[in-house]
Write a structure and sequence with these properties.
Residues 20-79 form the HTH tetR-type domain. The chain has 195 residues and is mainly alpha-helical. It has helices spanning 17-37, 43-50, 54-60, 64-89, 93-118, 128-149, 159-170, 181-191. The longest helix has 26 residues, at 64-89.
Amino acid sequence: MADIGGGAGPSVPRKRADARRNERTLLDAAAAAFVASGVDVPVRDIAARAGVGVGTIYRHFPTRADLIVAVYRHQVEACAEAGPELLANSDTPYAALAAWIHRFVDFVATKHGLAEALQSGDAAFETLHAYFLDRLVPACAQLLDAAVAAGEIVSDVGAYGLMRGVGSLCIGAGTDSNYDARRMVDLLIAGLRVR
């Protein structure tokens, strides 16, 4: 019998668009639940937020570690993909950078919700920090380079350093109602402007 697929080997089945959309909805719901209640939130609460049955979650993510890894990767991808979109749709590269940093702050808030699990020593989490750096440092660098090229910001700030600074400003934001991390991040962003 002839090879119908054209000969490059077995094909990997792709998820249908509705299945990908449902998975994104589930991951967004899990991220929100993790931020609100921690990574030990009952699966039924995540299912209720996502509007699916508990079995659907276990079908996609057999273990809690699988779900945590998927949420983390989903959040990293959303943040990384936002960079080029913001550059294309913002009035200036500086505006795109500022908007991206605010998305990064949202990601960091989710990440802090996952921090305890990520530091648990579970082998499933070992590669996540490298994945974070590999995807987000280049996204931030692209935005910084565009804003520098436009003459809008100082040129001596690196992506990694900026992201570390933003992350440091966000520590404790969820536990101290007297601390406004977004305000501190706004001051940092304003400090990048060329005078």
